[in-house]
Design brief:
With 139 residues, the chain is α+β, with helices and mostly antiparallel strands. Helices cover 36% and strands 14% of the residues. A 4-stranded mixed sheet has the order 1-2-4-3, with helices on both faces. Helix 2 links the parallel strand 1 and strand 2. The longest helix has 19 residues. The protein is globular.
Length: 139
């Protein structure tokens, strides 16, 4: 009956922002499409790194941003599942806050799943984003 659904947004998202580096540039529509396509190919090949946001706040407070940061460093593109969040629109907010925490960009949010991207300077074969046709500048 009368129960209210609690909106779960972990406290640690707002504090300590950009702990892991400087902000990245905003992605263009073409670059987002390219990253979604890459994620699809990597999923088929079994190469896409996938993390699940844990439901317990105490696990979140320290380890999840660290784990996400490590996976982004290794793979550049990471799928984050958020099944514990009550509403899908909350997932978009949490995905943006997570991305801000680890200096990444949100390439896509569908339902309870987000795709995060952060370019790597250390990988031997980093993802080559298409140059945005509007301004001609490289990413």
């Amino acid at each position: 009956g009368n129960e209210k659904m609690l909106c779960f947004v972990p406290v640690w998202f707002s504090s300590d922002a950009r702990r892991y580096g400087s902000p990245t540039m905003a992605l263009s529509g073409a670059q987002r499409r390219f990253l979604r396509s890459t994620a699809g190919i990597w999923t088929t090949e079994g190469k896409l790194a996938t993390l699940t946001l844990p439901a317990s706040a105490d696990v979140l407070e320290n380890s999840f941003p660290t784990i996400l940061d490590r996976e982004l460093t290794r793979h550049e593109l990471v799928k984050v599942r958020m099944p514990a969040l009550p509403k899908r629109n909350v997932c978009r907010v949490v995905a943006n806050q997570l991305a801000e925490q680890v200096a990444a960009d949100v390439a896509q949010v569908i339902g309870h799943t987000a795709l995060l991207y952060r370019p790597s300077k250390s990988l031997p074969k980093p993802i080559q984003l298409p140059i945005d046709a509007k301004d001609g500048s490289p990413p």
